Amino acid sequence: MRLPFTLLIDPVPADSLQHDFADTFHEMDSSAPALRVGELSTQRGDGIFETLAVVNGHPQEVEPHISRLRNSARICELPVPNPEQWRAAITYAVSRIPQRGEIALKFVLSRGVEHGPAPTAWLHAAAAADFSVVRANGVRVITLDRGYPRGVAERAPWLLMGAKTLSYAVNMAAIREAHRRGADDTIFLTTDGYVMEGPTSSVVLRIAGEYVTPAPSGAILHGTTQQSMFDYLRAQGASVTYRDVALDELRQADAAWLVSSVRLAVSVVALDGEAFAADQALTDALNAYLLARTA
Fold first, then answer.
1. Mean pLDDT over residues 222-236, rounded?
2. For residue 252, how far is the Cα from the chain centroid?
3. How many Å apart are CA 72 and CA 77, to the nearest integer?
4. Is 155 found in the same domain as 274?
5. Would you identify the family this protein belongs to, as annotated (predicted)?
6. How far apart are CA 81 and CA 72, in angstroms?
């Protein structure tokens, strides 16, 4: 068992009756060439992906990630992944990697080689970064204008805003801008002043005792870990809701978190240069719950 680990996949149609996918999986040396120069994922970012956490041998949120991958494929007009094949690929990969520690498992579906006959797909597993410090200490966040008003995804579906695409240059630029301003991360806003999401995370607020996240839409991904966080909060008897959130509500919230699959839950401790109230006890409890999941 080793890391990194790479598995190439020959995608089968979504409606295939095939149940044994062993001959569609090909292990690769992670340092060896695997993609051709005409590959559209690298030339144009024309593809989709998901990243899930594997904790002590347990892949987390498999079904929500596969469901979101399939939804991204529909939006991008890519061949819809066969869920049984991708479940089998994840199971295969997990059996070939260390069974202790935190691992990031990324799976990708590309449109393939330009003018080629089929899409390209692969999984790649690597040791997760050590997020213990930000889980314990929180993150300083700035707000940045995403450049779009509310409702743009519905009016302009060709922007692909509801898909988790490989085109992450803007997201990474936003994080670099946060660093230039002495912060760690970013929360995107619409041009008309509503909270969206982070470049790599969902946003959850506590407002007057209720836990709120911006309603998933054509422009906001439905966060897989945010859903798990809401499951935990409901079990604790808390009220949770999805709705539009204005910037003023963010500024006045009792607490805020950025939530993602591998980093998990981190408290916002500063917003646009001003100290922000944090509930570290709840953050610790959330992360203990998230790390203990076995599915």
1. 96
2. 26
3. 8
4. yes
5. Belongs to the class-IV pyridoxal-phosphate-dependent aminotransferase family.
6. 10
Residues 6+ apart with CB under 8 A from 79: 11, 13, 14, 73, 109, 119
Kindly state whether residues 245 and 266 are assigned to the same domain: yes
**Do the strands 139-145 and 264-271 form a parallel or antiparallel pair, or are they unpaired?**
parallel
pLDDT beyond 90 at 244: yes
- Tens-place pLDDT, residues 40-54: 999 999 999 999 999
How far is the first Cα of the chain from the last one, in angstroms, to the nearest whole number?
A: 21
Residues 185 and 120 both lie in one domain: no
Amino acid at 3: L
CATH number of the domain encompassing residue 169: 3.20.10.10
Which of 107, 128, 149 is a domain's end point? 128
> How many Cβ atoms from other residues are within 10 Å of residue 5's Cβ?
21
**Do residues 40 and 119 make contact, with C-beta atoms less than 8 angstroms apart?**
no
Q: What are phi and psi for residue 124, nearest 5 degrees?
A: -140, 125
CA–centroid distance for 120 within its chain = 20
Question: What is the per-residue pLDDT across 123-171, written as a single tens digit (0 to 9) for each?
Answer: 999 999 999 999 999 999 999 999 999 888 888 888 888 899 999 999 9
pLDDT of amino acid 121: 97
Confidence of residue 114 (pLDDT cuts 50, 70, 90): confident
Give the DSSP letter of residue 246: B
Helix, strand, coil tally for the chain in percent (to 5)? 30, 30, 40
Confidence of residue 217 (pLDDT cuts 50, 70, 90): confident
Write out the H or E segment, with its range, that includes residue 93: helix 83-95
- Indicate whether 244 and 170 sit together in one domain: yes
Boundary of a domain, candidates 95, 128, 161:
128
d(CA 69, CA 83) in angstroms, rounded, equals 9
